[in-house]
Amino acid sequence: MIRVHDTLSREKVEVIPREPGKLSIYVCGPTVYEVPHVGHGRAAVVFDVIRRYVEWSGVDVTFVSNVTDVEDKIIARAAKEGTSESEVAQRYEAAYWDVMDRLDVGRPDHLPRATEYIEPMIELIGDLVREGHAYVVEGQGVYFDVESYDPYGELSHRKLADLLGTAGGRVEVDERKRSPVDFALWKAAKEGEPAWDSPWGKGRPGWHIECSAMSLRLLGDGFDLHGGGDDLVFPHHENERAQAEGAGHAFARYWIHNGMVMVGSEKMAKSLGNFTTLADALDAHGPRAIRLAVLQTHYRKQMELGEKELTDAASAIRGLDNLARRARVAGIDPSGAQLDDAAVGSFRAHMDDDFGTPGAAAVIFDTARWANAAIDRDDRGEAATLLATVIELAGALGLELADGDGEEGDEEIDALVAQREEARARGDYAEADRIRDQLAQRGITLEDTPTGTIWHR
Fold it and tell me: 362 and 422 share a domain?
């Protein structure tokens, strides 16, 4: 039984799927006008881990995440570069998936692009107009009538009166709108911008209508889980919900949101220019360090994801790899070994409680410590069980251990380690130290253990 902190109810609730044994998930994806930064990496890993764990638990997941490929920032980028919006979107979408593949984030089951779903968006806007929740401003577009939808503000826990009082400070007020909080569903065409035909003239969709239309088309009414960053709760997700329900559709049953990556007291953001690109972080620390660093903070909390956090995570990953390498050297084979029931039960308890990855990761590292202790006392059966458990639980979160088998140059290094062992056995400690220093110059660290010497890069 998985329980999540539902943004709408502000309570931890049991997830009861629309269909038993299946879970439908929609997560807002990137607006592709710039290379992704580590904040995007965190969000992607969060929902990748959720998907992986639910599937590992035996549930059939349908995972949808979109690409916004028509939007003001894309248009502005194209104008700045003197190229087309489609060229900008294609280039930066390719850059996005390049780093996500490196990060071992699984591709969605469905990857809708906004420009491919214009007709469903037009249909949804038409439904809102007919239901009295939207109106046309000639020459401007179609707007959602916020005051016509009584539940507006429930998801973000804001009162309409407060929103009306602050609207002028948040958005440009258009006197032709019925209310300053009304938002665009369809924007009338402007010269030089992409546009499509519609009952209200040529134009393009507003940002918010995109996800409402795509999620409903691909997952159907009342799909299970809607996710995204907590910066999307208002106005994007609030507006998504209003659009869908205003048109007569049951929308997401549960809402979950991840916290932001911070740089000091500020959110890491493209617009602030305070970001580290995800590609640079991957080059410096590798995908597993980034994933583990994300896992070590609960998804709803803000976090830093800088040099210290990634260096510490990389060190922890090396510890897991050392266990795997040590077991290989000792001839301990985890394949086919039974799992440790207590560790698996504790892991599940943490993950079922609002995807508590910090506690789940702690279970993995505790089990790794016990596995090392079992190797120390030459309890091979216990060591195999515990190592198999570490491999299984880490894999459920998208982490693989590397035991060093087959790495380039391994045979030569193994030979040098064996020569050092022989030197130590005959008491030639000067020669043993010379070999250790030679390996250290190549970035190889040796660790002498009761069952032999292991090495790692």
Answer: no
